[in-house]
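Blinded run. Sample ID left blank on purpose so nobody reads anything into the name before looking at the predicted structure. Input follows.
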Amino acid sequence: MSGIVNVKCVREDGKEFLLGTDSAWRILSDGLEGIDYPKISVYSEKSAVKDGALLTGMRIDDRSIQIKAKTVLTKLNAVLRREAISFFRPKMKYRIVITYQGETRWIDGVIEGFSCPSQNIHMPMKLTVKFYCEDTHLKSVDNFGQNIASITPRFAFPYIQTNKIKIVAESFNFSKTVTINNDGDAEVMPVIRINFKGSCSNPVIKKNDAYVRVLGNFVSGDLLIIDCESYRITKNGENWIHHIDRTSSFTDIRLDVGDSNISFGADTGDSNMAVYVYFNKRYLGM
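Blinded prediction complete.
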C-alpha cells in the first residue's frame, strides 16, 4: 500500500478509533483485507439432456474486512492497548470509514474477531480487528443531495451587457423533473426529503411510470421524508407509512447505474414543495 491509508472506526455511540498513517497504530503493508472486489456465489444444476450445467442463479456475497496494525510509539504500548481493548466491543455496531489511494468510502459492520496479544513491552504492539459486513458494497461519503425544484443559474455576476438582446438571469425548473446520474457500481435506493412552503395535498414522487404517493394535507413548515431503502415515511419525525397510496412502489424508485429521471407533483400545491433527493453511491471495492 502506498500513500495515505487510514481506517476510522466509528462506534454506534459516536466514539472513534483511528488506524493508519495519521494514527499511533500504523496499518501493516499487508494489513488491509476485504476492501477489494467481493466474492460471488454462482449456482447451477447438471443438465439432463446435454453436457455441462444450467446456471440457476448468482449473488454477491457479504464480506469481512480485516485490519492489522502495530504501534509506532512503544513507550505508549500500555495506554494504546488499553484503549484498543476498551473500544472494540462485541454486540456493538461500527461504521468503517476507509481512505485508500485518495478515495474514502464506508461500510457498516460488527466485530467478528479481535486480537491484541500481550508481549515484550519494548517491542511494537500488534493489533488485529475483523469486521463482518452484511452489505455487499462500499458506499460514498457524500450523499449527493439535489433539489428537483431548484433555480437553474444562467450566468454569474458581475455581468456586463453589450447589446439589447433580452436575456434570462435565472429560471425555475417548471418541468419538476431532474436527471440524476449514478456513476457508482450498483443501483441505489434514495431518500427523498420534501420541505413544504405552503399548503399541499397528496404529494407524489415519480420515476417513469412508477411512483410513491403520500395521501394527506401539508402546510408550511411540514417535513416529509420518504426513505426508499428502509421503506419508511415520516412526517415531522412521526411514522406516516399508513398514509401511503397502496399502489406505490418503493423499489421502483431506485436510481439505476447511469441516468434516472425523477419528478414530483401533487393534487394541489406542488409549487409549495422543495424536493431533495439524497443517495450514497455504491461501489464493489476500492
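Unblinding after everyone has recorded impressions. Residues 5-136 form a domain with the Elongation Factor Tu (Ef-tu); domain 3 fold (CATH 2.40.30.200).
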